[in-house]
Specification:
The chain has 536 residues and is of the alpha+beta class. The chain is built from 6 helices and 32 strands. It has a 5-stranded antiparallel beta sheet with strand order 19-20-21-22-32, with no helix packed on it. Strands 27-28-29-30-31 form a 5-stranded antiparallel beta sheet, with no helix packed on it. Strands 1-3-4-5 form a 4-stranded antiparallel beta sheet, with no helix packed on it.
Length: 536
């Protein structure tokens, strides 16, 4: 089984030109040992509890009799004279004279091993590795014109984050490095601030990623470090080794609280103005606000009655957070007023995703499980979700709209992806949305559709789904897109007329449209897609 659950772009200029190799030194060992000790102690507690239950419930007199008989029999065994010198009858006995052994942990007795800071100091290594280091450094290089594309992947029951490099000029996409994850990843959020990185100012520019999984903890990784063993920080119960005793008492509790999530993390949203703030949404029905400087939960909110699955910060009012839930409501809450009831809108089925309009901050979009896109005016919302009405709604797909994105550079340009395996592009005007083109890119059920973040790659759309592959679609090569956005499509000299150009890993595909009638059908189908105007 292979599947990509979500993707995220990294804007140009944030990745280090030469990412560093992970260094396992004394300080790193102590940091990992402290984090790993929590997991080992939990496992030991579970084992002790199981042994205690077994001892209290299953020990019988017969077992005691059998044990006593075995001991008596062993004493009566006649030992051969040639074997007496080996004292085999006491082979399994504990030796009280042996000194205390070094405690074995997750990494064994790594600290007792002799190692050298570099191969030059090792007397047993005579071959110099400068040339090899130079080759590795060149292989890891990331240019200023490259974009990183992050993909959360499940493959053969293993979960990991793949970090791709997308070279737009060369139409090339390749895996730069990957990060192993503890559980199935559900959401990603790129961070432009360093988190728990030694020797770096906490407010400087960074290149990190926050990952939410089926586990209740949020892991934060440094994207500029290759082959990391452990995350830089863990937001949640697993990231506080100093609270070990407190954690042991609460680890069996699944009740929502104000300190950490107790169920799967379904959505993450980084605040781009208050860069140290990260919002998270969980299946435990809460929204939490994290301070990345302290890696602690600053505030918890419980205004939804079911799983919270999507979040989006307002671009102008930076303390206002949009949240969507399986309770079929979307809330607009000011994080500065946790005791105030938020404004709400209601929809016909479970919410899938929410987005603010990047070109008009008074409006926001909501996608639902029934395949509908709603467009709301935030100024007309009330605290009663049943009263609110959408400006328009669109039956975008026959099945769930599992992902959608608004182009951050080109106004009125929307992409939707569905579990019906299709990707659709839309032109949104004052009269409402109209279909531009619909495509099936053979990625299976579509779980992620994200536009490139920079003006140079504004027409690039990353598409991924249930087949475990990710492709970048240059939508400017589509005839329908050129027709609707002719004034916005950059002129690019090409040697050949390429239609629907796709770039996949190590495989550049210039795929043509199935036939010339497809575009005509897509354009004529615009009028057939359902779009309802709600009366004011």
């Amino acid at each position: 089984m292979s599947m990509i659950t979500t993707t995220a772009w990294v804007p140009r200029g944030f990745a280090a030109p030469f990412p560093t190799k992970y260094t396992f030194d004394e300080k790193e060992f102590e940091r990992i040992a402290a984090l790993a000790k929590l997991q080992l102690d939990d496992a030991q507690d579970d084992l002790d509890e199981a042994k205690e239950k077994e001892a209290n419930g299953n020990v019988s007199d017969k077992e005691d009799d059998d044990t006593a008989m075995k001991v008596d029999t062993r004493d009566e065994i006649e030992i051969d004279d040639d074997l007496k010198e080996y004292d085999l009858e006491h082979y399994d006995d504990d030796d009280d004279n042996v000194g205390e052994a070094q405690q074995m942990g997750m990494f064994g007795n790594v600290k007792s091993l002799a190692y050298y800071e570099s191969n030059e100091e090792d007397p047993y290594i005579t071959l110099k590795d400068e040339e090899e280091d130079d080759e590795d450094r060149e292989d890891l290089q990331i240019l200023a014109t490259d974009n990183l594309l992050l993909a959360a992947k499940i493959e053969d029951e293993l979960a990991h984050l793949e970090v791709y490099v997308y070279e737009d000029a060369a139409d090339n996409l390749y895996v730069h490095h990957d990060i192993m994850l503890p559980a199935i990843p559900l959401c990603l959020e790129w961070l432009d601030i360093p988190v728990s990185k030694p020797g770096v100012d906490k407010d400087s520019t960074g290149n990190f990623v926050a990952i939410g999984t089926f586990d209740p903890d949020i892991e934060i990784w440094d994207l500029d470090t290759v082959d990391c063993m452990y995350p830089n920080a863990i937001l949640g119960q697993g990231g506080n080794p100093e609270d070990e005793k407190k954690k042991k008492k609460k680890k069996k509790s699944k009740k929502a609280n104000d300190e950490y999530h107790v169920d799967a993390v379904l959505a993450l949203a980084a605040n781009r103005k208050h860069r140290n703030l990260l919002a998270s949404a969980s299946a435990d029905k809460t929204v939490k606000l994290w301070d990345l400087h302290t890696t602690k939960c600053a505030k918890s909110y419980s205004y939804h009655t079911d799983k919270v699955c999507s979040l989006a910060w307002h671009a102008v009012e930076s303390t206002v957070l949009l949240s969507g839930s399986y309770d079929r409501t979307v809330a607009i809450a000011d994080m500065r007023a946790p005791n105030e009831q938020p404004m709400r809108v209601g929809v016909e089925s479970d919410v899938e995703n929410v987005r603010w309009d990047p070109h008009d901050p008074n409006f926001f979009y909501v996608s639902t499980e029934n395949g509908i896109i709603h467009y709301f005016d935030a100024r007309n919302t009330t605290k009663d979700p049943a009263v609110s009405k959408s400006v328009w709604k669109l039956q975008a797909h026959d099945e769930s709209v599992s992902s959608f994105d608004l182009n951050p550079v080109i106004p009125g340009y929307m992409a939707t992806g569905s579990t019906d395996k299709t990707v659709k592009l839309w032109n949104i005007t004052a009269e409402g949305p109209s279909l531009v083109v619909s495509r099936d890119f053979d990625v299976g059920k579509v779980f992620s559709t994200t536009f490139g973040p920079d003006p140079e790659v504004a027409f690039r759309l990353a598409v991924a789904g249930s087949k475990g592959t990710v492709s970048v679609w240059d939508t400017s090569t589509n005839a329908g897109v050129r027709k609707f956005f002719a004034q916005k499509v950059p002129t690019k000299a090409t040697d050949e007329d390429v239609e629907d150009k796709l770039v996949a890993v190590n495989d550049i595909e210039d795929s043509s449209s199935e036939d010339g009638e497809d575009d005509d059908e897509d354009e004529s189908g615009s009028d057939q897609d359902s779009m309802d105007e709600d009366d004011e």
